[in-house]
């Protein structure tokens, strides 16, 4: 019997975190179940810091549907299975502290842990599941790259923000006869770049899944100039790379083992400079950055997040653990966390763009790719 559950939000913030939390709490209350939230994701689980969540008047989970961010915080670099610590000699080393987390969960009497996060978060969820903890994951990330689901919450809001930016850049480019480049997030997946390019009427979209030839982009811009259109709009995913090259790394962080320490960025400026030199048109780059993450969620994300949260609690009531709530063929479902991590089965293993990672990338037969090509968007190939 489920009597007491806990939620943790982990990874980069997205619009929709609070909507999921609200849905889990409301469904819990309607079934007489107490709900709590660990503060700052897996960090809070390790420190055993949590708060009671309730939707009553003036309670912490009341009136949060429209709020961005997470009312219980989030941690971006806490891999408790490979945690960065300082030993007695002052040296940095990495230890598996998951046993402390497991002890906390059992001591606190939580019957289920809901993990709201992306591929790294769900990898740790899977690892906890193998150690006997009742875990249910909810797929979160603006990158839309969690395996086994058609869409993650937070993604639609990020695309909408990028689309609005493109609308604004479009008018400036047209007025001043410039090439306007927009660099968007997405890590190693091009979902945001591709969908925002379609929604925002971009002429070129460069994504990680298609190594680009800058000359193909130049051809597109020249074709437009021959038609009397002396401006162009380009969307570049932060993980895009030229043929024979690699993604542009802004810096490499030292946030511990078992997390992706590579911070991508800078490719938009590189593309803008190359296009300016090759076309003769002035080019300007805008890096959208964290604007994509913050703020109020779209109606779509509010509904999707609510559906995911309610489904997660329903799965707990049914005793289905070790799973991730997903969207399949437009319908709510669940899959094993083992399927989500794929071949990345080593406890505490690195998440992200590795050979064993199971992140969801854009495929060439996807409708978005077909649509982009049909309407004449250049994908750099």
Helix content: 25-40%
The SSE string, one letter per element, is: EHEHEEEHEHEHEHEHEEEHEHEEHH
Biggest β-sheet strands, sense, barrel: 7 strands, mixed
Shape: globular
Query: What integer value in Å does the Rg equal?
Result: 22 Å
Topology-level CATH name of the largest domain: Rossmann fold
- Tally of discrete structural domains: 2
Structural class: alpha/beta
Would you count the extended β strands for me?
Answer: 15
Determine the strand fraction and express it as a percent band.
Answer: 15-25%
Supply the number of helical segments.
Answer: 11
CATH class identity of the largest domain: Alpha Beta
- Indicate the low-confidence ranges by residue numbers: none
Mean pLDDT: 95
Provide the spatial order of strands within the biggest beta sheet. Answer: 3-2-1-6-7-14-15
What would you say the CATH architecture of the largest domain is?
3-Layer(aba) Sandwich
